[in-house]
Amino acid sequence: MSNTFSLIYEQVCRIPRGKVATYGMIAAKAGNPHWSRVVGYALHVNPKPGQISCHRVVNRFGGLAPAFAFGGEDCQRALLEEEGVQFLADGTVDLAACLWQE
Questions:
Q1: Quick check: 2 pLDDT over 90?
Q2: What is the largest CA-CA distance in the chain?
Q3: 22 bridge partner residues
Q4: How far apart are CA 92 and CA 46, in angstroms?
């Protein structure tokens, strides 16, 4: 499992400031589009929160993680707002403006 987590962390580290990716995007880039839940678990046990920017990963609707491992949903939103990520009125990330595109 550590190799899978390493692949996931490598992809998460590629997300630039001010952008977000979905769990599914990270899963696909790490090698298996069915790993969305594995991505969530890997981010929950992130060994380097200051280096692996797990706050930049959101669900497919732009929703934040209610159990964000490093301070909850409000903390995740604050971190994203500091980077200039835009939010819609319903509290989701504006994916049209902020989704990471390579």
A1: no
A2: 39
A3: 58
A4: 23
Which pLDDT tens digit goes with each residue over 10-41?
999 999 999 999 999 999 999 999 999 999 99
pTM of the model: 0.92
Closest C-alpha among 101, 98, 95 to residue 19:
98
In single-letter form, the type of residue at position 8 comes to: I
Positive or negative torsion for Cα 29, 47, 2, 78: negative
Q: Find the angle CA(30)-CA(35)-CA(40) to the nearest 5 degrees.
A: 95
Q: HEC profile for 53-88? A: CHHHEECCCCCCCCCCCCCCHHHHHHHHHHCCCCEC
